[in-house]
Amino acid sequence: MRRRYLGVAVSLVAVALLALPGVAFGQDPALDRIKDLKGSIGEAADAVNTTWVIVAAVLVMFMQAGFLLLEVGFSRMKNVGAGVAKIFVNFSIASLCYWAVGFALAFGGAGAIAGDSGFFLDVGSTAAEAGKQFPFVGLYGIDPAAFLFFQFAFCAVSLAIVWGTTLERIKFGAYVIYAIVFSAVIYPVISHWIFGGGWLQVNIGMQDFAGSTVVHLLGATGALAALLLLGPRRGKYTGEGKPRAIPGHSMPLVGLGVLILWLGWFGFNPGSTLGIFGDAAAGIGNRFAEVVLVTNLAAAAGVIAAVATMYGLRRTIDIGMAGNGAIAGLVAITAPSGYIEYWAAPIIGAVGGIIVVLGVLAIEKLLDDPVGALSAHGLAGIWGTLSAGIFTSPRFAEFNAVGEGGLWYTGSFDQLGAQALGVAVTFAAVFVVSYAVFALIKATIGLRVSPEEEDAGLDISEHGMYGYPEQFISPEEYPGGTPAAPAHAPATVSAIGAERPSEA
Amino acid sequence: MKKIEAYIRHDAFEPIRGELLEKGFPSLSISEVKGSGRQKGVVEQYRGSSLTVNVRPKLKLECVVEDKDMSIVVETILRHARTGDVGDGKIFVLPVEQAIRIRTGESGEEVLQAHPGAEIPA
Fold first, then answer.
1. Which of A140, A246, A470, B8 could form a disulfide with B89 if both were Cys (CB 3.0 to 4.6 A apart)?
2. Measured between beta carbons, which residues in chain A are less than 8 angstroms from residue B55?
3. What's the rounded Cα separation, in Å, for the pair A119 and A102?
4. Residue A504 falls within a domain, yes or no?
């Protein structure tokens, strides 16, 4: 296990700390000095690891901005404000629910199904104390608050993915109800199975380093359940059932959103090392830096593959698909990022990029998924999880102490089978629960706004205001007088005429 | 010749356009307009204050046809634009004195719609 980190941390930091003043000396200077140093170094290693986890968590939190801009850019102007309100409220609900309930279910013990302690986490406890309740906190020696915040940021990402399919027609109330169930129960239980020492991780040996399945497939599965009950946006399909494009209003916003997500992924995958000290003696150095590079290689390959695939099919350099390709590459590399050698990363990312294009084009015929979440997070998430079963390097499987080497190295289908089982179980469990929750919402408060409200746009009908008011309110009705004439308007004849001297 | 000017809801346009095309009337213009009528305005809530917006967005559809075709076009618009709720809009019919095709300079009723037999792209 990665307990090795701490041992190696001692040797790595020793030199630096020797130079520091303020180390206490005891009665037996030589012996006490070594003891104190070991204690200080351990604490210093914990502090540095905690700092890295917080930095990574903040990067993952910033991905909310990426989802916001991506979804807003893919929406029409009448629905942009709704996306903003949604991100704020969902993130906040999840913040509270995950702290109160979710974290305990995910990491509060080593039960096969769920944890059972640590509700309303008391962050005052030290790592050593907390380790008794939360095996993972003790194992990595990071501050329990940092660990909770990092894991919560993942939960919030997964929840954000759910809503990608529901844009421009879902009722705001549906967000609130599902967000509570999702962040308190659905996400924590599944993440316990795969991240928190639950049965898929321990008994099956499923490898999911940062959550191709836990975060992305899980979110996309919730998104599918919502979409099946919600139906397409008005006008998406012709009378004969042929899909029509409903272009989003801003490709620059989509691009900015994708880039922010890409940036956030450098917290998402590398942060899942939960520290920055590596075992140099074993030839496995600072894994977090390697994971950064692996992540970027896959994203780049995803873009190139998606653009090339789309160009092959339609002879256009598709802007939205380039972004989807980046996301698909990143989603795909999330599960194997801590398990593979560099060379496998572009392959995994490129296949993700091809899958997302074919997936979007195929799903479009049946289901209205405005941002391509089912393909980019669902199909690419499945591929990424399976790819670990193919490309996992035996030395990293041993290092992470989960599963074994992939098909490429071992010639055995064992790991691939474990990955497939994890995907199937996660999909089935999340789909059944999510479908039930959304069906309940549909039967009670309703899942979808009325056709009139949908036509008017969610901004004015659900939120009482426009996201882009000047698109919908004529200048004459803006308080404070009529704005100046637009730049393209010609000067009026009377204005020119007024300059002329009158002729008698 | 008559000019038909219809103020309609946005979502009525696509079915109207489709049926007019089928019936041989591909030539029309639309513009985004804002106006008021019996339909109430929208109250925008902005950070605790409100702003009443009295004019609402509509589409203005304009189409010039021969006298004998006027009722076909009007009837088509009526059928698709009517929801029965306040805010469906209005149709005005105006007389037109002359029509000239700019490309050829020819004038009269024959310039109003597509050439007979000319291929009409869907």
1. B8
2. 474, 476-477
3. 8
4. no
Q: What residues make up the domain containing A192?
A: 65-124+152-275+293-460
Closest-CA distance of chain A to residue B111, Å: 31
Does the structure show a pLDDT above 90 at A438? yes
Q: Tens of pLDDT along B94-114?
A: 999 999 999 889 998 888 876
Inter-chain CB proximity B45 and A465 less than 8 Å: yes
Q: Are A146 and A121 in contact (CB under 8 A)?
A: no
Does the CB of A239 have a partner CB in chain B at under 8 Å?
no
Query: Under a CB-based contact definition with an 8 Å cutoff, are residues A88 and A466 in contact?
Result: no
Tokens for A160?
A: 């954000």
- Residue A281 DSSP symbol: G
Chain B contact for A450 (CB, 8 A cutoff): no
pLDDT at A31: 67
Segment A266-273 shows an average pLDDT of: 91
More confident residue, A268 or A282: A268
pTM confidence score: 0.84
Size of interface A-B (CB pairs under 8 A): 31
Residue A389: CATH number of its domain: 1.10.3430.10
pLDDT band at residue A33 under the 50/70/90 scheme: low
- What are the φ/ψ torsions at residue A482 (nearest 5 degrees)? -75, 130
Q: Are the Cβ atoms of A235 and B34 closer than 8 angstroms? A: no
Answer whether residue A169 is part of any domain.
Answer: yes
CB contact under 8 A, A469 and B54: no
Between residues A139 and B83, the one the model is more confident about: B83
Contact B34 A474 (CB under 8 A): yes
Q: What is the pLDDT of residues B61-78, one digit of tens each?
A: 999 999 999 999 999 999
Structure tokens at A100: 């109160």
Q: What is the pLDDT of residue A16?
A: 46
SS (H, E, C) A334-366: HCHHHCCCCCHHHHHHHHHHHHHHHHHHHHHCC
Structural domain total, chain A: 1
Asked if residue A35 is part of any domain, the answer here is: no
Cβ within 8 Å, pair A460-B34: no
Q: Which of B10, B45, B53 sits opposite A477 (nearest CB)?
A: B53
Looking at the domain assignment, is residue A162 inside a domain?
yes
pLDDT band at A358 (very low <50, low <70, confident <90, very high): very high
ipTM for the predicted complex comes to: 0.75
Measure CB to CB from residue A465 to each of B11, B46, B57 and give the nearest one.
B46
CA distance B89 to chain A (A): 16
Exposed e or buried b per residue across A184-219, where buried means at least 16 C-beta atoms within 10 angstroms of its C-beta: bbbbbbbbbbbbbbbebbeebbbbbbbbbbbbbbbb
CATH number of B2-111: 3.30.70.120
pLDDT digits (tens, 9 = 90+) for A441-496: 999 999 999 998 999 999 999 999 999 988 888 787 887 755 555 545 454 444 44
Alpha carbon of A451: minimum distance to chain B alpha carbons (Å)? 11
Closest residue in B to A455 (Cα) is B11
Asked if B11 is an interface residue toward chain A (Cβ–Cβ < 8 A), one would say: yes
